[in-house]
Amino acid sequence: MSTRGVQFLLAAAVLLLPACSFSEDTLWPSLAGESPKGAMKQAAQSGQGAPASGQAGGGASAPQAAGQSVIITQNPPPLGSTDFQPTGVTPGQATGTFVGQKVNELREELKRLQASISNHNGQLQGLRGKIVANSQRYHGTIAAVNARLQVGTTPGNPILVQQFNSAQSDLDRIAADITEMNVLASRISNNSTMSSFLLESAKASFAVSGAVDEDHRQLAILEDEVSRTDVLIARLLKEVSDDVRRQTNYVATERANLNIVSAAIRTGEIFGGSLVHKALASATAGRNATLAARPTDTTGKRPLVVIRFDRAKVPYQQALYHAVSRVIERRPDAIFDLVAVAPASGGTARVALNSNKARRHAEEVLRALIEMGLPPARVAVSAKTMSSAKTNEVHVYLR
After folding, report:
1. Segment 112-155, tens digit of pLDDT
2. Distance of alpha carbon 3 from alpha carbon 33, whole angstroms
3. pLDDT band at 47 (very low <50, low <70, confident <90, very high)
4. Of the candidates 378, 357, 354, the residue with the CA atom closest to the CA atom of residue 366
5. How far is CA 97 from the centre of its chain?
6. Which H, E and C letters describe 116-169, residue by residue?
7. Which of 124, 148, 309, 364 gives the lowest tally of CB atoms within 10 Å of its CB?
8. Quick check: helix, strand or coil at residue 324?
9. Angle subtended at Cα 333 by Cα 332 and Cα 334, rounded to the nearest 5 degrees
10. How far apart (Å, rounded) are the C-alpha atoms in residues 293 and 75?
């Protein structure tokens, strides 16, 4: 069966499922190298033409079927837009008193603090500009890769590999910018400590004896300006911290998307968004994570997907992605059992040989699921022999 035929049957099976429930005993079609006549007949009776079976060559092939998933990268989160410029320090005049001298010292400290804030603000605006430029270049490159994959291309196309490496470099640059922004946040935090010290010193100076009225007037002005500077630093620190948090999450998400883009480039056809974003974190999923490491008994259960390795290079990845993706959309905490199935006939030596091959196929399928973004803790791997099996198979069950 061609890959497109498998996609059609899987999509049809998903649409027949109830909207608000999911049955673990739903029988999904096998992913084999040969096309079942019954499925082709059913497709013809439903008015659907036979799916195209041509392989993508060196150039672009025909566009994929409507409804095909597209690798969509999320839009970069918005960066803060505030320009944090201190209002300046009001000059004063010497009064010749000890308090007047203290006011002058605090005023000079405030000037240095505001100069530091202006410097940090300039660094922040520069980092924001770099992140925007790198994000735009990254998304432009990924869009070009997606467009080429959407119409089909050769597996491991070197042009796409080069574009992928360029996109990865852009994402690394964004991550480096975020690191610089995180260092900047630490420096701003030091400014906040200094601002608090100046504010307490200004307040304490009111209680020092030997001051004249002019000293207290200048102290009041200084206290107000330190307070405004303290508020400015707090706002600056909050905005930088928010930028760091949002951009860090964004880069982590895009790294997961790049994993599946890499898998799509290797196969020459598009998959979809990373499964890790569909597998939403929940308390139930957290409790089941440890259970996923231990296989469960699948006797009597119907497999979600059957992949028959009856020939070399069975193109199962696209259909496997769609099947698992549809399940996770309905059950975000879903856990899967991956079973390597070997024929039980042919003698002890033949059974042992087939069992080893089946395990290797199961490991290959597991790697494909992980590349698609499915957390490894959500998959349990086991092996068994079946007298009804004619060739090595990998069964995927929904737990």
Report:
1. 999 999 999 999 999 999 999 999 999 899 888 888 888 888 88
2. 9
3. very low
4. 378
5. 62
6. HHHHHHHHHHHHHHHHHHHHHHHHHHHHHHHHHHHHCCCCCCHHHHHHHHHHHH
7. 364
8. helix
9. 95
10. 35
CA atoms within 13 A on the CB side of 211: 19
Q: Choose the weakest-confidence range: 33-37, 107-111, 118-122.
A: 33-37
- Axis crossing angle, helix 158-205 with helix 98-151, rounded to the nearest 10: 160
**Measured between alpha carbons, how far is 292 from 51 in angstroms, rounded to an integer?**
37
Closest to 272 (Cα-Cα) out of 326, 308, 313: 326
- Any idea of the CA torsion for 121, 126, 127, 130, to the nearest 10 degrees? 160
Residue 395 is predicted with a pLDDT of: 94
CB atoms within 10 A of CB 140: 13
Instruction: Say if CB 80 and CB 188 are below 8 A apart.
Output: no
Structure tokens at 349: 């030596």
Distance CA 184, CA 247 (A): 15
**Angstrom distance (rounded) from CA 298 to CA 341:** 12
Residue 7 pLDDT greater than 50, yes or no: no
Instruction: Report in angstroms the alpha-carbon separations of 147 from 64, 77, 266.
Output: 11, 23, 15
CA angle centred on 60, ends 59 and 61, rounded to 5°: 115
- The domain segmentation of the chain, as residue ranges, is 3-63+280-398, 98-267
Q: DSSP of 223-278, one letter per residue?
A: HHHHHHHHHHHHHHHHHHHHHHHHHHHHHHHHHHHHHHHHHHHHHTS---S-HHHH
The answer to whether 30 and 308 have CB atoms below 8 angstroms apart is yes
Q: How many residues does the chain have?
A: 399
Burial letters for 291-311: b for 16+ Cβ neighbours within 10 Å, e otherwise?
ebeebeebeebebbbbbbbee
Q: What is the pTM of this model?
A: 0.54
For helices 317-330 and 347-371, the axis angle rounded to 10 degrees is 60
